[in-house]
Structure formats: structure tokens, C-alpha cells
Amino acid sequence: MMDRLLDLARFPLDDLTSARGQALVARCRQELADHGTFSLAGFVRPQALSQCIAEVQPVFDTAAFPHKRSHNVYFKDRVDGLPTDHPALRRFETAGHTVCADQIPDSVVCRIYDWPPLVDFLAATMEKTRLYPMADPLARANVMTYREGEAINWHFDRSEFTTTLLLQSAEAGGEFQYRSGLRTEDDPNYDGVGRFLADPSREVQSLPQQPGTLTVFKGRYAAHRVTPVEGARTRIVAVFSYYERPRVTFSAEERIGFYGRAEALGPAA
To answer: What stretches of 64-183 show up as alpha helix (H) in DSSP?
Structure first.
């Protein structure tokens, strides 16, 4: 069934012990080591992409959570040891709309998210013993849309890595940009972060993506953003969250901050 949704001939996630499966894992590991990211272009088949959009668009039209916030690259009001006017704490605007997993429980997006071979593949590429889907009914898989003028501005991720699936690209703009190696676990490099944010154009890299592309990105130490969308066609991207321990959930406060509500809808609550 999944081979109708995913191009498993090119990306044999369901057969990682084969020579082709091992070669795919090795390639992705090398790209992560070299660039902090890897992509599988064409991972989701065109017909499945159309189904994804058809399933989520009515929810975007009627029940998506609109979020707009002013933030710094750390998503923190205060950072220990930094004065409030430090260049690393420069503020930006982010805006978009989010649909949560509990709003599309039987969707293709959630079926892909929960598919065990995908989880095993991600663990293998990240050289983890095991990964687990989130237990949080809201946060486990989100689909986000960015309309004209909306963007995700510069930030670091809290998690070690992020997995995204681009469902629809914008007519223009909506470009994923990043600066890898900007900080490390041992060195926050606040002054370097401040210099980069003052003039990102000197060091920024772009990651071209086409609809159907699965991307894994190590965003904890790489500042990144999606540039403002231009034109009538929205940018739609699914974001998958996995952890090294089971049964991870967000707190009620985090859910309210991200989604405007603390409780799940219907039977999943």
C-alpha cells in the first residue's frame, strides 16, 4: 500500500538490509555529516501529494490556527549572560497557519508519519538506536501553510533534527535558507550569531526543494528560516517530530503557545 504513496523503488525504506537500502542510508549519513541536511526529492508520488493537499486544505480554510509572533533566534525572552540589546537577540516576525495531527487523523500525512519503516530509516541515518513517534495528539505531525507575505524567520530548533515533507511550493519566495555550524553544544557563539543576523546575505545557504521532497535538517546549531511567500499559491509543508524516548508530549502551556489550545479534539483527547 505505501508504495502507492511513496517511491520505494528509488528509496527502499522498507528494505534497509538490502545493498540498495544500505547505500541509501550511507549516502544520507554522509550528507548529514557534510552539510547538516539531506533530502529525498520525489519521495512522495504526485498523486499522493494531491491527496494530501485535498485532505488538509478544507481544514486550513476553516480551522487552522493562525500564529504570528515576534521572537529572537532562540525563542526566549531572556538568555543568561546576554544584555537585552545584544545583536544576537535581534527580534523578527514569524506568521503562518497550522493544522495539527488530531485535525487530520486518517490523512495520508499521518499515515506516512506513523509508518514504521520511515521511523527506522530516520534512526539509521541519524545513527540512533531507535526513534519513536510523539505521543502528543497535536504536535506529532503538523501541516503548516504560509500565505503571501508570511514567513518563518531566523531561529534555532530545540530538537536535534527536524523532518519535513514539502507538499506545495509557493509561486515565489518561500525559500529555505540556513547557516550551518553557527554554534555548538559547547560554544553558543553569541557574537558570531549577532554578526550573522546583522547581514545574513554574506554566509547564507539555500536548500532548493520541490513538492514531494522529504528533508532532514539538523537545526539545533544551524540558524534557518523560510523567506516570505510571494503570490497567490501558498507554501504547504508537513513537519514530523520524533524522539529517542517514547511517549513524549508537550505541556499544556506549550500546546497553547503553538496551537492556541491545550486539549486534543474528539476521541484522541
So the answer is: 108-114, 116-125
Do 154 and 197 touch, CB atoms closer than 8 A?
A: yes
In the structure grid, which three cell numbers stand for residue 174, read together? Answer: 518561500
User: What are 3-25's pLDDT values in tens digits?
Assistant: 999 999 999 999 999 999 999 99
Helix orientation angle between 116-125 and 19-35, rounded to the nearest 10 degrees: 50
Cα diameter, the chain:
55
Pairing between β-strand 214-217 and β-strand 205-206 as defined by DSSP bridges: unpaired
3-state secondary structure (DSSP) of residue 171: coil
Q: Is 9 left (phi over 0), alpha (psi -120 to 50) or beta?
A: alpha
Could you tell me the CA-to-CA distances from 16 to 2, 21, 24, 122, 240 in Å, in that order?
15, 4, 8, 11, 21
Cβ contacts of 245 within 8 Å, gap of 6 or more: 132
List pLDDT tens digits, range 166-185. 999 999 999 999 999 899 99
- Give per-residue pLDDT as tens, 206-241: 999 999 999 999 999 999 999 999 999 999 999 999
Q: What's CA 136's distance to the chain center, in Å?
A: 16
pTM exceeds 0.85 for this model = yes
Secondary structure class of 79 (helix, strand, coil): coil
What residue ranges define each of the domains in the chain, with the CATH number in brackets? 2-262 (2.60.120.620)
Show the cell assigned to 90: 535581534
Measuring CA to CA, how many Å separate 141 from each of 46, 87, 90, 194, 220? 20, 33, 30, 32, 19
Q: Are 231 and 180 in contact (CB under 8 A)?
A: no
